[in-house]
Specification:
282 residues, alpha/beta, TIM Barrel, eight-stranded parallel β-sheet, 11 helices, 44% helix
């Protein structure tokens, strides 16, 4: 089964939700989505660091994958405030988000630093979720595509074709993120996804590049999620506050899953389990 035959859905809770909030959220979400086959849906949650160990225990044996919001590029050392892959592996975490716009624009992380983190994550057996996106100024000057290509070419410079099998990309335009973010039009988002996929094919070849999941994130909500997921180059949704209530997140998943299934089925047959799930959701 190809990676892109399933829908990718996830959320990053940023610096919200306490440990008890997070475990309650995960328990409820796991209960609500337990009937959806794993070959139809890749579901992940990226909570705050203090909640990671409890979240990992809560999610163990279930269908939700738990990830870290950041990760250092060394196993140990004089890096106050950083968390190493060894520490994350010890608590059962093997998914790391790297290069979120707040890490780049609030904390000043560079493309070169993101490359070191991606390389370390993949070398350590993690799935690396690299976040990229243009600023409002980039967009105003017509530099969106150049910005995305630069972030990919530097951020993935040392990554091999074999390592790319564990790579995910999240496209999150900086101007679309946060409380005051403005969602990207689905056609604009899809065109940026096309550029990203073309660049990934350039970097990793025509077989590996197109099979790397590219998710859209940036003010995704119940209204625009169905429009976004029907676009041909969007493989999933990376949702913010609209997903922080388990029942609401489940509702979004069940709205977009059959739409995604219809889109994919037009290109290639779905698995029997996904076909039956699609009918049940309808």
């Amino acid at each position: 089964m190809k990676r892109l035959d399933r829908l990718y859905m996830g959320t990053n809770t940023k610096m919200y939700k306490t440990i008890s909030d997070t475990t309650a959220f995960l328990s409820r979400l796991n209960q609500l989505t337990a009937d959806i086959p794993a070959d139809c849906l890749e579901l992940f949650v990226i909570p705050s660091y203090t909640a990671l160990e409890s979240a990992s225990r809560t999610a163990a044996g279930g269908r939700i994958r738990v990830g870290a919001q950041n990760m250092g590029w060394e196993d140990e050392g004089q890096f106050t405030g950083e968390i190493s892959p060894v520490m994350l592996q010890e608590i059962g975490v093997n998914l790391a988000m790297i290069g979120h716009s707040e890490r780049r624009h609030v904390f000043g992380e560079t493309d070169r630093e993101e490359e070191k983190k991606v390389a370390k994550a993949l070398a350590s057996g993690f799935t690396a979720l690299l976040c990229i996106g243009e600023t409002a100024q980039d967009k105003a000057y017509g530099l969106s595509d150049e910005t995305l290509r630069t972030q990919l070419k530097i951020g993935l410079h040392s990554i091999t074709r074999e390592q790319a099998a564990n790579l995910w990309i999240a496209y999150e335009p900086v101007w679309a993120i946060g409380v005051n973010g403005v969602p990207a039009d689905e056609h604009y988002a899809d065109e940026r996804h096309r550029v990203i996929k073309d660049t990934l094919s350039e970097l990793f070849g025509p077989e590996t590049g197109p099979d790397i999941p590219v998710l859209y994130g940036g003010s995704v909500n119940p209204e625009n999620a169905p429009l976004l997921i029907q676009m041909p180059h969007i493989d999933g949704l990376f949702i913010g506050r609209s997903a922080w209530d388990a029942d609401r997140f489940n509702a979004i998943i069940r709205t977009v899953l059959p739409l995604f299934g219809s889109r994919k089925n037009a290109a290639s047959p779905l698995s029997d389990s996904c076909k039956s799930q699609k009918e049940e959701i309808r």
